[in-house]
Q: What sequence folds into this?
């Protein structure tokens, strides 16, 4: 069996509106292997969350997958009906969102929520499910599990809640975890604890992870490969070390240059002029061309695309923009 | 007004407590005591004219409370704030540029407001010209004055906030997480703008952020806070070259470093305790790898070492004279 867990081909997500169809995700192809963390970065509105939601089958109508395919370990999962999708969510794909409270029920003790989820997916007896819940809480780093298992979510700190959400996502030993900004609401010291946890789970259980974040530092230290998104499109895809050290897409290098350094003194941060276009005003050709210092005539005419590691940029692909 | 030693702001033993008790009736029925939260617990620092002092620390450590004390939005529970400048020329920039702009006013009116307050009898054509100037200064166009805040992106809204703050002809700006809501590329535009304005107008900033790389880029002096106190204060270059307090050192070891990514970084253990019932002694002791008996009972005061760096930690003192051991 191939070890590709997630296989996305030419994915397109659209929102039909009165003023026309908005394309939030445009022709994205990527794969994640067993035990691999793929980081997805980009500025707000780049289409990161919509990609995650499409995988989870959680796009809010009228949003819809308009083209392409999504396979999970060989099984096609886009276009399934709600019941089939619900069965896959939780059992084969775990989800972790920015705000842990959206995934937790405030009225139930965390232990009971874990037990219910475990029983739903495994059919274990109540007592065996409780033992498993304790193991999971221990595994995600909750101290004094015996004392905490009967607490309510509001009695936990933000970092502890996010650990419980990760434990919930792990209940059925899913093949894939989609984590959308899982550390964004947390303090730096807690953020590092959560990313270390994700890395360990990947290594030990072979889970594949799509880690969506706008934080390049988190990606650099957590992901194996990275997908850089811009205006709903894949700008660059490749091993994280290469992209952090030698970005090939002008947008990626601009992004890297705009981040203040912890080591070097600079008077001025590098700036990318302008801002990301709105979905109803994406320029023809390369979506980055109005902000790009290298843009040439071809960039305004034809859209560069990638479906394997590389940069979606005429300069990088063909060495010229004429 | 005296301008002693170039200091524009001196904060001395500043305290702010909040009453976070349950409602009176619950206390009575359930026999619960009054509870006090020490949001700011004996803080001192000085800011020199034309410089930037940054407060950095994790959520809830008291940064915004200090900003509100300095700008007079909160009254201190103890200590003193001495401002050697013109109170009317102190302005504040907030984290959420949308919440702080009146959605029903056009941008020109928003920007003109502090000017009209400062000099009520400015003739209208002069106000208009000045607003146009200010919009240009922050990289917007004078025609943007006719638009409403919702017509702008997050970064542009933060520029509008800055233009409004500048309209009050400030000498001192309190900036509370001015770029935390912005994407990094937009953050770069705003930070560059703030630095340019400081150079050109000699502004002084009290700059608040939880992001150490932003603070490193912006500040001359950095004060690191933990649970309502400043645990360490040093000139920026020194803080990064030789962090003294165990918390600062763990913090610097914990944050991801784009230029030297470390995938096996060991995260700092534990969490920030509740400020309602902080641990006794040094409040960092439950997370501190260097903690010893004294730390659990006695509270370290911030002392200057031989190099005049100041840190509140017993492990950084030599027993004899209280000077920092080279750790
Ligand atoms: N009006 C208030 N009443 C009660 N407690 C308050 C009040 N304002 C602040 N606090 C508490 O004081 C402490 C310090 O809060 P503050 O807003 O200054 O933190 P901060 O450092 O700015 O955090 P953040 O990084 O999350 O903005 C927190 O524990 C907070 O809950
Ligand atoms: N219900 C919706 N209707 C129209 N556009 C939407 C809707 N939800 C999201 N979008 C748009 O899709 C784009 C991508 O959004 P998202 O994936 O959430 O971005 P991010 O990269 O910040 O996670 C944005 O331009 C957003 O405004
Ligand atoms: S394709 Fe052209 S406009 Fe787009 S990033 Fe490359 S050089 Fe710039
Ligand atoms: S005083 Fe003690 S507990 Fe506090 S930081 Fe120093 S060594 Fe650690
Ligand atoms: Mg998102
Ligand atoms: Mg704050």
A:
């Amino acid at each position: 069996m191939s070890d590709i867990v997630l296989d996305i081909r030419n994915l397109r997500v659209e929102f039909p509106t009165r003023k026309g169809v908005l394309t939030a995700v445009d022709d994205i192809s990527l794969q994640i292997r067993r035990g691999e963390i793929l980081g997805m970065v980009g500025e707000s509105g780049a289409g990161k969350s919509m990609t995650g939601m499409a995988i989870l089958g959680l796009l809010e109508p009228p949003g819809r997958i308009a083209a392409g395919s999504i396979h999970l370990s060989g099984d096609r999962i886009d276009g399934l009906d709600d019941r089939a999708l619900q069965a896959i969510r939780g059992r084969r794909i775990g989800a972790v969102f920015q705000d842990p409270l959206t995934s937790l029920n405030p009225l139930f003790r965390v232990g009971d929520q874990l037990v219910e989820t475990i029983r739903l997916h495994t059919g274990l007896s109540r007592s065996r499910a409780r033992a498993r819940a304790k193991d999971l809480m221990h595994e995600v780093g909750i101290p004094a599990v015996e004392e905490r298992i009967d607490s309510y979510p509001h009695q936990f700190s933000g970092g502890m809640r996010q650990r419980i959400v990760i434990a919930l996502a792990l209940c059925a030993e899913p093949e894939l975890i989609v984590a959308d900004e899982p550390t964004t609401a947390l303090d730096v010291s807690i953020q590092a604890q959560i990313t270390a946890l994700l890395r360990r789970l990947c290594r030990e259980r072979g889970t594949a992870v799509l880690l969506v974040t706008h934080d390049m530092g988190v990606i650099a230290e957590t992901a194996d490969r990275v997908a850089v998104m811009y205006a709903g499109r894949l700008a660059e895809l490749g091993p994280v070390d290469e992209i952090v050290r030698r970005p090939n897409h002008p947008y990626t290098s601009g992004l890297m240059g705009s981040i203040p350094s912890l080591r070097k003194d600079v008077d001025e941060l590098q700036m990318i002029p302008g801002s990301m276009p709105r979905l109803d005003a994406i320029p023809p050709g390369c979506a980055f061309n109005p902000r790009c210092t290298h843009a040439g005539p071809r960039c305004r005419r034809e859209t560069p695309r990638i479906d394997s590691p590389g940069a979606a940029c005429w300069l990088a692909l063909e060495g010229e923009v004429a | 007004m005296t301008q002693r030693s170039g200091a524009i702001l001196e904060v001395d033993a500043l305290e702010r407590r909040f009453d976070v008790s349950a409602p009176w009736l619950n206390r009575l029925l359930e026999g619960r005591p009054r509870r006090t939260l020490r949001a700011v617990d004996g803080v001192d620092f000085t800011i020199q004219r034309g410089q930037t002092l940054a407060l950095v620390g994790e959520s809830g450590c008291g940064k915004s409370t200090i900003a509100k004390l300095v700008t007079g939005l909160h009254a201190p529970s103890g200590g003193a704030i001495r401002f050697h400048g013109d109170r009317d020329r102190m302005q504040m920039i907030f984290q959420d540029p949308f919440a702080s702009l009146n959605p029903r006013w056009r941008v020109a009116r928003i920007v003109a407001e502090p000017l009209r307050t400062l000099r009520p009898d400015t003739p209208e054509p002069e106000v208009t010209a000045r607003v146009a100037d200010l919009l240009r200064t922050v990289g917007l166009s004078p025609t943007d004055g006719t638009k409403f805040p919702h017509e702008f992106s997050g970064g542009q809204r933060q520029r509008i906030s800055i233009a409004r703050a500048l309209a009050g002809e400030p000498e001192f700006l309190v900036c509370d997480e001015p770029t935390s809501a912005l994407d990094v590329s937009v953050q770069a535009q705003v930070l560059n703008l703030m630095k340019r304005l400081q150079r050109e107008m000699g502004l002084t900033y009290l700059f608040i952020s939880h992001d150490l790389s932003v603070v490193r880029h912006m500040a001359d002096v950095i004060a690191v806070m933990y649970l309502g106190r400043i645990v360490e204060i040093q000139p920026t270059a020194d803080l990064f070259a030789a962090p003294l307090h165990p918390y600062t050192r763990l913090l610097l070891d914990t944050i991801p470093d784009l230029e030297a990514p470390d995938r096996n970084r060991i995260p700092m253990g534990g969490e920030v305790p509740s400020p309602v019932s902080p641990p006794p002694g040094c409040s960092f002791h439950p997370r501190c790898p260097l903690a010893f008996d004294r730390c659990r009972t006695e509270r370290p005061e911030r002392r200057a070492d031989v190099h005049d760096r100041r840190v509140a930690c017993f492990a950084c003192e030599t027993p004899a004279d209280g000077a920092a051991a080279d750790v």
About this structure: Residues A 249-250, 286, 288-289, 292, 294-295, 299, 304, 313-315, 321 surround iron/sulfur cluster (ligand 3) (CB under 6 Å). The longest helix of chain B spans residues 184-201. DSSP finds ten helices and eleven strands in chain B.
